[in-house]
């Protein structure tokens, strides 16, 4: 990707973020005013009107968004009503927990899928291939929340091996990681298997085998390198999904990440935190996509000539 293409991609991403935040800004205000939740039930109308004016909620939506955008351009995303702190500070405390969880899940899923998918593709329709295909399809199909609830019921409630929720030492990571790893592992196994089967039929593989290359080298050097492009593409999509889609799992396990934070912000109508959280997740997803685009030419030189 050339510098001009990179700059164009960044500009498109910025415009996309602005459009997204405009839609989010309007939609979350349709949920109602936070004034009724923040003030006591016996608050007078004067108190409600004063707080509404203080928050700027008495202004037209266009004016409100213009003020928010001007402040956001100065990296001021507003203050949280419930945390009494800058919203950006609250979000930046929660975001690393989600990113760390997603990074561990994606790393384990990718490494496991490479090994299982490559071995399954080496002998298509064999016993290992059939078991791997069945297991990966099941992992990609079973809902995360069902796995989470069953894991809590078995390992935390019945066996008392692991805590039900919370954040701390290694024991608190086991259930969230194990729950989230099933879907990306299942999807990536299918991608790696299909790509490797196609790679094994290529002439360069037959040449390597004719030269006496060991099966391990044929699988994990020659074939895998040429099957990386679709795997990286799908892994990028899965990383984006993990960055923005672990809300249910974080809620089930009480994980102090961005997903749980945004659920709480929705219930509390904490507009500043919700807007900052969505902006942070969207920015991470955009960054992931740009990194994937930059990796393409490094993985496949043929892509380099097209950029």
Characterise this structure.
The protein is mainly alpha-helical and 307 residues long. The chain has two domains: 3-73, no CATH class; 88-304, MetI-like fold, CATH 1.10.3720.10. The protein has helices spanning 3-29, 35-38, 45-54, 61-73, 87-122, 127-141, 144-158, 171-200, 203-210, 215-226, 228-245, 247-252, 258-268, 271-299, 301-304. The longest helix has 36 residues, at 87-122. The protein is flat, with a radius of gyration of 24 Å. The mean pLDDT is 85.
List keywords for this structure.
307 residues, flat, 2 domains, 15 helices, mainly alpha, MetI-like fold
Percent strand: under 5%
Q: Report the average pLDDT across residues.
A: 85
Low-confidence stretches: none
Enter the CATH topology name of the largest domain: MetI-like fold
Question: What percent of the residues sit in helical stretches (DSSP H or I)?
Answer: over 70%
Main β-sheet: number of strands, strand sense, barrel status? none
Write the CATH architecture name of the largest domain: Orthogonal Bundle
CATH class of the largest domain: Mainly Alpha
- Count of helical stretches: 15
What structural category do the secondary elements indicate?
mainly alpha
Give the SSE string: HHHHHHHHHHHHHHH
